[in-house]
């Protein structure tokens, strides 16, 4: 786990840090596995009262590793794996995002640099997000001819108005931390988001831990049947898109820096 996600605990506060800084903490298979392991470890760790989730180096996470898009440009598809419900109602990619909501203590994401695509969805999985004003964020999947499929649709539905979610998902535009705050996607902004996140985590760690856990249970009550339907629908729609001619064309257009030529 340590070559992708590093976990340490000091004074009841866990520091969960993505450490693939040479690739801007891009999400590859090893990163997904490390995130899953980190979440399981933190869930079982006694004495943890708050968690800070952040990225090492220049970014929180640049999203899915670009090597995956090289395969997509050639029309290669790994879509059937998306439909396997490997973690209750979720697949692995959805689980590594949604697990932070089900961990019994508050999780604070400290976002700097970029949080694109899957990296942005990972930040949405935290209970709170402290974002650098100049951080760049995007629901970027549409640029690759895809839809958010790591729990992002379900989380966006909880955080923003439907028309705002539609604007972000259809447009794939990049916005900064100030805009994220105005939209309701950032809890607050800070020029030093990691420091601010640890300060907030320390305050939480000094509260009655039983009350904090009770509060998180109350704040994360959801319609489980609706959530399951959305997660399966995300995977089903994505599986139908990956490897199709229009999706491969979207990837090639980005790679070749030209307008796409889609067929209806």
- Percentage of helical residues? 40-55%
Q: Which descriptor suits the 3D outline? A: globular
CATH class: Alpha Beta
Taking the sheet with the most strands, its summary is: 6 strands, mixed
Through-space gap between termini: 44 Å
What's the CATH H-level homologous superfamily? 2-enoyl-CoA Hydratase, Chain A, domain 1
Uncertain residue segments:
none
Name given to the CATH architecture = Alpha-Beta Complex
* Annotation, overall tally of beta strands: 9
Rg calc: 18 Å
Approximate strand percentage: 5-15%
- The SSE string, one letter per element, is EEHEHHEEHEEHHEHEHHHH
In oligomeric terms, what are we looking at? Answer: single chain
| Average pLDDT taken over every residue | 94
Domain module tally: 1
Q: What is the third-level CATH name, the topology? A: 2-enoyl-CoA Hydratase, Chain A, domain 1
- Supply the number of helical segments: 11
Structural overview:
This protein has a single domain (5-191, 208-256), classed as 2-enoyl-CoA Hydratase, Chain A, domain 1 (Alpha-Beta Complex), CATH 3.90.226. The protein is globular and about 60 Å long. Helix content is 46%, strand content 14%. It has 264 residues and is of the alpha/beta class. The chain has a six-stranded mixed β-sheet, with helices on both faces. The chain has a three-stranded mixed β-sheet with strand order 5-7-8.
């Amino acid at each position: 786990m340590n070559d992708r996600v590093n976990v340490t605990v000091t004074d009841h506060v866990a520091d969960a840090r993505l450490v693939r800084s040479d690739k801007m903490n891009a999400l590859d298979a090893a990163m997904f596995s490390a995130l899953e392991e980190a979440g399981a470890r933190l869930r079982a760790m006694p004495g943890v009262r708050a968690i800070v989730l952040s990225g090492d180096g220049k970014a929180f996470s640049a999203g899915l590793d670009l090597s995956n898009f090289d395969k997509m440009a050639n029309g290669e598809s790994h879509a059937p794996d998306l439909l396997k419900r490997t973690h209750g109602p979720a697949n692995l990619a959805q689980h590594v995002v949604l697990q932070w909501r089900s961990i019994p203590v508050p999780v604070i994401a400290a976002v700097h640099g970029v949080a694109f695509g899957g990296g942005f969805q990972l930040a949405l999985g935290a209970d709170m997000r402290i974002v650098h004003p100049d951080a760049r964020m995007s629901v970027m999947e549409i640029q690759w001819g895809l839809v958010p499929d790591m729990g992002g649709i379900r989380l966006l539905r909880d955080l923003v108005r439907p028309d705002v979610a539609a604007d972000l998902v259809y447009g794939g535009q990049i916005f900064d931390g100030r805009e994220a705050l105005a939209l309701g996607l950032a809890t607050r902004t800070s020029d030093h988001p990691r420091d601010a996140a640890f300060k907030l985590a320390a305050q939480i760690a000094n509260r009655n831990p039983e009350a904090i856990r009770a509060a998180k249970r109350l704040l994360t009550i959801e319609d489980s049947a609706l959530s399951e339907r959305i997660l399966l629908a995300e995977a089903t729609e994505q599986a139908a898109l990956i490897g199709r001619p229009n999706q491969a064309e979207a990837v090639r257009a980005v790679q070749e820096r030209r307008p796409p030529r889609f067929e209806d």
